[in-house]
Amino acid sequence: MLRWRLWRLFWYVALLLSVLLIAMLCYTPSFHCLTQEPLENPRHRPVVVLIWLWPFNKTFELDLCSSLFNIHDCILTADRDFTDKADAVLIHHRDIAWDKSNLPQGPRPPHQKWIWMNFESPSNTVQIPGLDNLFNVSLSYRTDADISVPYGALVQAEDIEDFVPSKKDKLVCWIVSNYRLHHKRMQYYKELQKYVKVHVYGDLFERHVSKQEYKDIISSCKFYLSFENSVHKDYITEKLFNALDLGAVPIVFGPARKNYERFVPGDSFIHVDDFPSIRALAKHLFLLHHREALYLRYFRWRRHFHVMTTFFPGENACRACEYLQQNRQYQVLKDLYQWFWDTSEGLDLPLSFY
């Protein structure tokens, strides 16, 4: 009996000590244990991204991640005093010197990642020597980049409603500034001009158009030539998304139709490859011009989606910060050239939109 009483007394003392210990470590009324919350959690501290080279020497506001893209705990800076402290250095390919003399020259901190950013097509990207094994993260329009930021996207609409395009007074329009006779898109344009009038605007045709004129022109046309300057995997630029957003049906020249269908519904655009000849394409345009019901089918997607275009380069920097918050592992881009300049399609099946 005495042994049992001593054993029970031992458990009472142990229980009392446990309660006292909890009281020391926790506080009321939430019973939030201080030992569970270190004063500084390195995995949740703000991520610092240093903009080393302003893309095309174009500056942007550095405090936009939270307000515009709902990406928090990001510090963007262009102050090179943060070179040793930054979690990542964002470097725009087009602005790298051929001898790399304008890149950071000192020893790289062990925790720091260099981000290679490029939104030009491979045909318009100079292969600067010595970039393999230099960068850790790729940031591009490509869907297989570490950080993929396409030129635009369709976003689910909150309400479903029919879309009625604005009144049109032109059939086909094209705004072009990068005019090169050897571009294949020029051959398509010249051939199409034989069968249908194309209203052409831009630096080398009439004059430079302002942002507002750009919107007004596209909105006034039934069809818009969303012709890319080169054909590469995923290289689908604002030329497509602006036309969709402004109520014109895009006529696209670029990668294969199935590549476009990874970004937008297949019945939202016309691909030049859909026709055996440019003459057949022109005939189809006249058919749609006279058959309003057929033309309006190209806007059925507007009942479900609206267009979002990428805010370059500010959004790209914010997406880089978001990526770093979720990916702490270290890697090196050993075959940057081989990956980006690969001309193979390597496409998956189209996405489902409806």
TrEMBL record:
A GO-annotated cellular component: Golgi cisterna membrane
Subcellular localization, as worded in the UniProt entry: Golgi apparatus, Golgi stack membrane; Golgi apparatus, trans-Golgi network membrane
Membrane disposition: Single-pass type II membrane protein
Pfam family, one: Glyco_tran_10_N
UniProt family annotation: Belongs to the glycosyltransferase 10 family.
Transmembrane segments: 9-30
Official protein name in the record: Fucosyltransferase
Organism: Bagarius yarrelli (Goonch)
SUPFAM superfamilies the UniProt entry points to: UDP-Glycosyltransferase/glycogen phosphorylase
